[in-house]
Amino acid sequence: MLETILAIAGKPGLYKLVSRGNRNLIVESIDDKHLRMPAFATDRVISLADIAMYTDDEEVPLADVLTSMKDKEKGAKSSLDYKKASKEQLFDYFAEILPSFDRDRVHPSDVKKLIQWYNILIGAGLDDFSKMAPTEGDNIDDRKEA
Question: Does the structural domain 51-123 have CATH classification 1.10.10.1650?
Answer without folding.
Answer: yes
